[in-house]
């Protein structure tokens, strides 16, 4: 494949990711930046039956937020996204709404502490409801110091077994970014799943190399022993 085609595919991959930000009206700096592709894995209970649907965030209608909000006497920052899901049509014109709330502490630069998803009927999903955060499966979207958060798939659990998946997630909050995109020198805290995977890879590679060395050494010793036996026989 030519380098030009690779570049085109790379640009398309970047362009396909959703991009959201919230700007502080007092400073003009971005406090929240979120990049990623959103998929909603929804579970609806209808009597004794369980219905499951996977829906993509398709068309953003409006983005709102607050860099200086207060909830329960705690300083928070909020991001609210109204959008049309994939499969939306004129038959069901009502939009969906996703709300994210970021908090901070002495140990964390930021963390998603709450979130809700309000859905409406679509041609693909014949049910609707409001999904709230599952405290037992709230995910690990958090970072320290001035770092951002990075994860191949960030999962936010919802009550009832539903989840919000953010693919190729890059997230920062409680920041002061001059612009609306991540700085080129931005540092990231990698999510637990990706960090664990990155640790496993070198261990596996090292084990394979060790096995290869042992096989080569055994082969060498066997070959040397055979050569000696052949030398004795010729004598």
What's the arrangement of secondary structure elements?
Elements: H1 3-16, E1 18-23, E2 30-46, E3 49-71, E4 74-85, E5 96-103, E6 110-118, E7 130-132, E8 142-143, E9 148-157, E10 163-172, E11 188-190, H2 192-234
Parallel strand pairs: 9-11
Antiparallel strand pairs: 1-2, 2-3, 2-10, 3-4, 4-5, 5-6, 6-7, 6-8, 9-10
Mind explaining what this structure looks like?
It comes from Caenorhabditis nigoni. This is Lysosome-associated membrane glycoprotein 2-like transmembrane domain-containing protein. One of its GO terms (biological process) is establishment of protein localization to organelle. Residues 1-17 form the signal peptide. Belongs to the LAMP family. With 235 residues, the chain is α+β, with helices and mostly antiparallel strands. The protein has 2 domains: 3-189, Beta Barrel (Porin); 191-235. Helices cover 24% and strands 44% of the residues. It contains 2 helices and 11 strands, in the order H-E-E-E-E-E-E-E-E-E-E-E-H. The chain has helices at 3-16, 192-234; strands spanning 18-23, 30-46, 49-71, 74-85, 96-103, 110-118, 130-132, 142-143, 148-157, 163-172, 188-190. Strands 1, 2, 3, 4, 5, 6, 7, 8, 9, 10 and 11 form an 11-stranded mixed β-sheet that branches. A hairpin with a 2-residue loop joins strand 3 (49-71) and strand 4 (74-85). The protein is extended and about 85 Å long.
